[in-house]
Amino acid sequence: MDQFKLYEEEINYFSETVIVKYDGTNPFLLTHQIDATDYSISIGGYAKALSTICTDLFNTPIQISIVANDEGSFKSVVNTTIKSIGLIGSICGILNFFGIEAQDISDALTKTQTAIVQEFKDAKGDINKLVEKINRDKNLNDDEKSILIESINNQNFREGMDNFTRPLDDNGYHAITVAKGEQKIFSIKNTERHYFKYTPPAENETDFFDDNVEIIYLSPELNRWQFKGKNEFWADIQDHTFINRTKNKKSNELKGLHFKVYGRKITTRKAGQKKRHITWIIDTVSEVPSPFKLPLT
């Protein structure tokens, strides 16, 4: 592992500027402009995908900024800065899977983007084929295979690439190209857009929480409660003792009181939908004494 010593002990920063170019016959593109909604979704998706690669594969943060724009059909100049990838030896197998040698570490992000996009194209967007290829690789150990599979199937990465290529759904967009100087990193055509589409799976997660909260709103019927603690949220109260204690109270008697609550945050999403629905349920409530308010009686 001595060959990786430099990268393990010294902290360097690698900065590069890439151009994201949108080509096509869209009326905006023909006048060197781009639709603001298309652009914000797309460039935000690119940033999300890059950030996921750096976090999952390289274990390092990335700073992404828009530097300027230039004429093309529409070109956007994006600057990326990453900290020297720590513990290179621990991800050497993954880098080699993408054809990256240790001495090429400063180009790791560029080459990884090229390789991942090409892998998706070769597999025609079939994530199962990609997983099979990774599992067949004899140079990757089990941990490296697990990291790589989780990374390419990471929801943030998949959603990022889906958003990045979304303008290609419009017939007026023909291709999106990312280049570094004269070097093309990758290009995705509208005929390849479906390889990067992502359908989020159904989701149903329950997280248990406890918090010290204050009541900030009650409906006149006292059946809708809004609390403020670490978060502001509307909640369903399942503590019947608390409900019985407060059912005859006026809202101004309850506002400003503080409570210790225990409950559940339930996040659901239907398959194919990106929007999540969050429900807060409070199971138990106990009053926190306050020198400024009389306790409940």
Automatic annotation (TrEMBL):
<protein>
    <submittedName>
        <fullName>Uncharacterized protein</fullName>
    </submittedName>
</protein>
